[in-house]
Amino acid sequence: MSQDSLHEPVEIQRPDDPGTTLRNARESQGLALQDVAARLKLSRQVVANIEASAWSKLPGDAFSRGYIRSYARLLGLDPNRLALEFDRVRGTLVTRPAPVPSGRIELHSRRKGSRLLKLSSMLMLLLIVASLVLWWQEKRDNPALDDTGSQLQALEDIRIDAMAMPDMLSAPPSPELASALAEIDRLMPSESAAQTGDAESAEAAASEESLQPQDDVPAEAFPVETAQPSGQAELSADTRDLLRLDFSADCWVQISAGGQVLHSALMRAGQQIEMRHPGPLDLVLGAAQAVQSVHYQGRKVEFDSNRSGVLRLRVAQQE
Predict the structure, then answer these.
(1) Alpha carbon of 44 to those of 37, 38, 40, 41, 308: distances in Å?
(2) How far apart are CA 276 and CA 265, in angstroms?
(3) Which end of the chain is more exposed for a tag (fewer CB within 10 A), N or C?
(4) pLDDT in tens, the chain (319 residues)
(5) Would you call the peptide bond into 280 cis, given omega within 30 degrees of 0 as the criterion?
(6) What region holds the HTH cro/C1-type domain (predicted)?
(7) What residues are paired with 246 via a beta bridge?
(8) DSSP alpha helices (H): ranges in 53-174?
(9) What are the boundaries of each domain within the chain?
């Protein structure tokens, strides 16, 4: 018996359609399609596609599952049950293995588990070795990392120097120190008097010169140096190829580049995404109103934040 004959495709009974369930519940509650779209902050067409089970017209299964959960909570239905129905609808064709002796199944499972364990261990070991090699090469090829460490140490020294002085330095002087200071004050009057006399004679000479007429002398314009912002170069280096998204409400986000998905998850209110990529980047936002701001390379990306429904953006388009 060949290995392919062990599995036979079997068509199981099609489960309940979550789109039909949501539409029937909405109609029974007397809600209009436009009212549901406004409450869910989605477009009317997206809600219509959900009720019509037009899953191919929606952004993806992750977004569709989130829409179904939100729609179910709005109508007072069980979101977990409808999400499970959606998963069953998206995978109705299953494979059922043909019956084989139990001893053979156990032996096959043990062999398969042992092979998977050995393969995973080898892959993990190779990854560790490759990471160590890459780290060593990067450290050898980039001596600037040591300079960065010294700069950080200098900054730490500066922060230490700028700390407040201990309380013991602000305490009153000891009796020995007080007597030494008194002795210094006793010896200082003669020098202070001499300096005072010199200062008075200098002031008298200056007053006599000010009484004498002087020719008008044009004032010399001294150059004024304008301080340049020292943090501009560091700011450009910190924000180079940096994508940052801030969220004010729950929103599904998918970030891809060249057809490869870099990030796909549900972001909560107050969360932030930061990643570096030279671009171009394709962004799919489940709710534009939930995105507080989008910045790339330190510049704000303008978009219509009042738009309802899914928003697609492309940033860092190469010319």
Answers:
(1) 5, 8, 10, 9, 9
(2) 17
(3) C
(4) 445 544 554 444 445 688 889 999 999 999 999 999 899 888 989 889 888 888 888 888 888 889 899 988 998 999 999 899 888 887 643 444 445 555 555 555 667 778 889 999 999 999 999 999 999 888 887 765 555 555 555 444 434 333 444 444 444 555 554 555 555 455 455 444 445 555 455 454 444 444 444 444 343 433 333 333 334 444 467 788 899 999 999 998 999 998 899 999 999 999 999 999 887 999 999 888 889 999 998 899 988 878 777 889 898 754 4
(5) yes
(6) 22-51
(7) 272, 293
(8) 61-75, 79-89, 102-141, 144-161
(9) 7-95, 99-140, 239-315
Q: What residue type is assigned to position 56 of the chain?
A: S
Q: Which two tokens stand for residue 177?
A: 């120190």
Q: How many CB atoms lie within 10 A of CB 255?
A: 22
Going by CATH, does the domain composed of 7-95 fall within 1.10.260.40? yes
